[in-house]
Write a structure and sequence with these properties.
The chain is of the alpha/beta class. It has three domains: about 160 residues, FAD/NAD(P)-binding domain (3-Layer(bba) Sandwich), CATH 3.50.50.60; about 60 residues, no CATH class; about 50 residues, no CATH class. Helix content is about 25%, strand content about 15%. It has nine helices and eleven strands. The strands form four sheets. Strands 5-2-1-9 form a four-stranded parallel sheet, with helices on one face. The protein has a three-stranded antiparallel sheet with strand order 6-7-8. The protein has a two-stranded antiparallel ribbon with strand order 3-4. Helix 1 runs parallel beside helix 6. The longest helix is centred in the middle third of the chain and has 15 residues.
């Protein structure tokens, strides 16, 4: 198999890389471990995009400058942020919206009057699934060779270069190993983009960072992000950065499935309620700030409580102030 660029992964980052490589005239192979109906990684669960802009653009109103964006980020991370990298990402985000529109991605009209979201957040028309579908259509139109149910099992690294990719391609019978046949392939591309996600769906790996309580976590994203490529690269000396205990973790309805519940399983009632642990104790200021800046910390907070459980108490005055849960 001859290819110039191999992209490992099938979510937003992988697709953007594949599209740009194809536009540059390269032959591109994209390996997605999930079956086609479940393609896209956690990107299919997203619903909006935040970017810096100095003037109104597409659905975004007014302006949202670098310093304000960075301040919002710092409030969520409480200072645990690489400022140089964060500011670079913020500045680079300015050109992303126009690029996405050029790829056929559509956005909802401005959400005026909704917690300033009309200025900061562009919402995908059709959500993350529509985002992923638009990018796959574009990649296919550009001739990208897309392989589903194709899991990378090993990267052959020599002198800090990936020389060969070994992957298993399943066919027939869906995702269960007993129902499918598998063929091993080897490819030696000129360049490799590793965009296959993290280890969010590997609860044993999560346990090493979070302790035994990680086994109780509900993973609202894809079950295919098991960190196989990441672990292979780390084992071969790739430099690790960041903190494995830091993550985008939200409060999930305890009745949600173990995997793939998506954004519908998120609870948005926290800022309008009192949250108690199993000992009947409050453990954070629920009203410190409102969605969308604070909701991403509540998964971590609940994870630190006994049995990783919290109870939300809401009075009748607050019932209509937030988006209702998927479950009654």
């Amino acid at each position: 198999m001859q290819v110039e660029v191999a992209v490992l992964g099938g979510g937003n980052a992988a697709l953007c890389a594949a599209i740009n490589a194809a536009r540059a005239g390269c032959s591109v192979l994209l390996l997605e471990s999930a079956p086609k109906p479940w393609r896209g990684g956690n990107s299919r669960h997203t619903r909006n995009f935040r970017c810096m802009h100095q003037a109104p653009i597409a659905p975004l109103t007014d302006r949202y400058l670098e310093d304000e964006y960075f301040d919002d980020l710092i409030k969520v991370t409480k200072g645990k942020t690489d400022e140089v990298l964060a500011r670079k990402a913020i500045r680079e985000s300015e050109g992303c919206l126009a690029w996405m529109i050029d790829q056929g991605i559509r956005f909802q009209p401005s959400l005026s009057g909704t917690l300033s979201l009309s200025r900061t957040n562009a919402f995908f028309l059709g959500g993350g699934k529509a985002l992923v579908n638009a990018l796959y259509r574009q990649a296919e139109a550009l001739g990208v060779d897309i392989r589903y149910q194709s899991e990378v099992t090993h990267l052959v690294v020599h002198d800090d270069q990936i020389e060969e990719i070994v992957f298993q391609e399943r066919s027939g019978g869906g995702d269960e190993a007993g129902d499918a046949t598998s063929v091993e392939h080897r490819v030696r591309p000129k360049a490799v983009v590793a965009a296959s996600g993290g280890f969010q769906a590997d609860t044993d790996w999560l346990e090493r960072a979070w302790g035994p309580g990680a086994q109780n976590f509900l993973i609202r994203g894809t079950p295919y992000n098991r960190g196989v490529v990441l672990r292979d690269l780390l084992d071969q000396g790739a430099q690790a950065v960041g903190d494995p205990t830091q993550c985008h973790a939200v409060a999930i309805d305890g009745r949600a499935p173990k995997f793939d519940g998506g954004i519908a399983s998120r609870l948005d009632c926290v800022p309008f309620s009192v949250v108690l642990n199993r000992q009947g104790q409050r453990f954070y200021d629920e009203g410190e700030d409102v969605w969308p800046k604070r909701y991403a910390i509540w998964g971590r907070l609940v994870a630190a409580q006994p049995e990783q459980v919290g109870y939300v108490i809401i009075d009748s005055r607050s019932l209509n102030l937030f988006m209702p849960s998927l479950y009654p």
